[in-house]
């Protein structure tokens, strides 16, 4: 079977910074849109969660942390302008370095750190099954812990989710479509996952 045409791509930027408050995604998105307003024109633009370790109310950024945007290929040129810029995230500076393109790959197991939706696990899984049915995706799932992302003004709640036994076409389709709201805040974005027994 031929792989579907992929209209989404990951832009991976080098990143330098030390720490951010745990509710940083809202301020990060506002800063990215300030620099590249076109990002707000598409609902399917996503910002992958930054890698780091939580320490009380802070996230200590990994030295290898990257700023990764998942967006339509048509926005690549505009978003590439972020390279070489300085972000100010709630008084915490981040330096954006060089960029490279990374095509989506058909991994059989994917993970979303937080997919929005559902007041409880049963309701959440109903929404997962409905979403997969609409996308014509067949796979097995493992619902993880309930999570909430918030700052002083807004919050998004949901669950972490592992999807495994994905066929190649379905894997690409799910990575392109994501799930639920808040992709610009890192929610509902699926990335490769190697160990399905660890939902963190």
Structural features, described:
Helix content is 20%, strand content 37%. It is an alpha+beta fold. It has 2 domains: 8-102, Alpha-Beta Plaits; 110-192. A 5-stranded antiparallel sheet has the order 3-6-1-8-7, with helices on one face. Strands 10-11-9-12 form a 4-stranded antiparallel sheet, with helices on one face. Strand 10 (140-150) and strand 11 (155-164) form a beta hairpin. It starts with 7 loop residues before the first strand and ends in an 8-residue tail after the last strand. Mean pLDDT is 93; it is low at 196-200.
Shape: globular
Task: Give the terminus-to-terminus CA distance.
Answer: 33 Å
Please give the number of β-strands. Answer: 12
Question: How many discrete domains?
Answer: 2
Percent of residues in beta strands: 35-45%
* Percent of residues in helices: 10-25%
Given this structure, which CATH class of the largest domain is correct?
Alpha Beta
Which residue ranges are poorly predicted, with pLDDT under 50 across at least 5 consecutive positions? 196-200
Q: What is the radius of gyration?
A: 16 Å
What's the tally of helices? 4
Query: H/E series, N to C?
Result: EEHEEEEHEEEHEEHE
**Pairing-aware structural class of the strands and helices?**
alpha+beta
Descriptive key words:
200 residues, alpha+beta, globular, five-stranded antiparallel beta sheet
Quick description:
20% of the residues lie in helices and 37% in strands. The protein has 200 residues and is of the alpha+beta class. The strands form three sheets. A five-stranded antiparallel beta sheet has the order 3-6-1-8-7, covered by helices on one side. A four-stranded antiparallel beta sheet has the order 10-11-9-12, with helices on one face.
């Amino acid at each position: 079977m031929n792989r579907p045409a992929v209209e989404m791509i990951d832009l991976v930027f080098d990143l330098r910074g030390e720490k951010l408050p745990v509710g940083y995604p809202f301020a990060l998105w506002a800063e990215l849109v300030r620099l590249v307003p076109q990002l707000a024109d598409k609902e399917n633009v996503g910002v992958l969660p930054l890698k780091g370790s939580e320490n009380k109310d802070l996230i200590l950024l990994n030295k290898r942390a990257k700023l990764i945007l998942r967006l339509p290929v048509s926005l690549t040129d505009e978003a590439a302008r972020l390279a070489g810029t300085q972000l100010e995230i709630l008084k915490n500076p981040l330096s954006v370095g060089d960029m490279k393109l990374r095509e989506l790959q058909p991994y059989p197991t994917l993970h979303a750190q937080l997919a929005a939706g559902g007041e409880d696990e049963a309701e959440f899984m109903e929404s997962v099954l409905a979403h997969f049915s609409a996308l014509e995706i067949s796979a097995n799932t493992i619902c993880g812990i309930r999570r909430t992302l918030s700052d002083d003004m807004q919050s998004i709640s949901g669950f972490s989710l592992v999807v495994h036994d994905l066929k190649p076409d379905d894997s690409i389709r799910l990575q392109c479509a994501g799930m639920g709201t808040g992709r610009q805040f890192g929610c509902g974005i699926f990335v490769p996952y190697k160990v399905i027994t660890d939902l963190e």
